[in-house]
Amino acid sequence: MQQADAARAAYAADAIEARRVAYLVSTDPARLDLAAVHRYLARSYWSPGIPEDVVRRAAEHSLCCGLYHDDAGQVGYARVVTDRATFGYLADVYVLEAHRGHGLGAWLVGTLLSHPDLRGLRRLSLMTRDAHGLYERFGFRNAPVPSRFMERVVAPTVLWPAPAAAGGG
């Protein structure tokens, strides 16, 4: 825990923040509303039912960026899992539905990818079902040799089974 606290303090010192009218984008981990992030991710197609403690642990071990609205609070999020030397994986990118269509997703991703800890990475990867156009703006392309890419997937229902129904007799 002390190591995670020290890392958060270091990331806060290097935080990037920018404002556009009523919106703020920030890499300061102290600003994150992880309960709000959990509410979205738990209903997303890529992590349905994810427990809040898993969201918190993932954020603690990632470089995160939040998107905030002056009245609505946190309305977007993105994170990079990285060794900060050679590799990164962009994950959990979202902007709430009511705030889409204003270029905020591109602003969020661009801000995160501009962080000094991500400069010089040899490889940055991601997975998406429907946002290829967004990520292509930042140089992402389909893997040239897809057969070289492998993954191990465990179903969310195995990782986070639904709690048993109370009652019975």
TrEMBL record:
Molecular-function GO term, any one: acyltransferase activity, transferring groups other than amino-acyl groups
Presence of the UniProt keyword Transferase in the record: yes
CDD domains with a match to the protein in the record: NAT_SF
UniProt keyword Protein biosynthesis, yes or no: no
Coiled-coil stretches: none
UniProt keywords, alphabetically: Plasmid, Transferase
Pfam family, one: Acetyltransf_1
Occurrences of domain N-acetyltransferase (ranges): 25-165
Name of the protein in its database record: GCN5-related N-acetyltransferase
Organism name: Gemmatirosa kalamazoonensis
